[in-house]
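ok so dumb question maybe but i'm new to this and my supervisor (M.) told me to 'just get the structure for Two-component system, OmpR family, response regulator' and walked off. so i did the thing. is this what she meant?? sequence i used:
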Amino acid sequence: MVHNALAMEPTRILLVDDDAAFCDQASAYLAQHGCSVLALTDPFGLPGALEAFRPQLVLLDQRLGTVSGTEVLKKLRDGGNTPCIIITGCSDPFDRIVNLELGADDEVEKSIAPRELIARIRGVLRRSGPAGEAPSGSSAQPDATQRAVSAAGRSGWHFDTGRRMLLRPDGSNCGLTTAEYETFRVLHDAMGQTVARAELSLRVFQRPWRANDRGVDTVIKKLRHKIEPDSADPQCIKTVRQIGYVFVGFPP
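this is what came out, is it supposed to look like this??
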């Protein structure tokens, strides 16, 4: 019996890569580990695939022939918050920052060991919440016993961990990506205490932090744009020089 490394039920993964051979190999391996994979070699089929297949995670190639994976990622984020892992032929720090700024949840090299790919997928799925939960903007309400709603420090702001949402005073959803949600959750839980970049990197990305790693800083920048009155003069998430960040609550 094949051991299911991801879940008891098939995990729906949409693989977008113009390399048909890679799609075949990756699909076969993922299928052995409990995934139902839909492979697209043509990115123009993405909108229809998202609607029909309703993937729980998207694996997206950085280079798609004449189409940039960055452009596809923008369209993916415009349409929702489906978790996305970028597949790249080489690790470029600039590309990684751009991808994170656009809402990618992780980035892996195409030469990644299959077992590590499974681990990365598991990590993103774990951070993104249980399969089948109500998407952002859905009218579906979880059972009261499953919701953990906490005030984020300012009247009207609510951090709803049951639906994985940060709600503004007017009730609108901030639309946090998986990485942004997990980063805010860690900072919120430690309100008033400094959280080191190294801890955030381990808890959000499951990787050790290095001095040239801008992943955490990039997510913080995006998070500030969504919750700060003025992201250039942050009052909610403060930088602790050479250490990390601290969430001090929303201003009165």
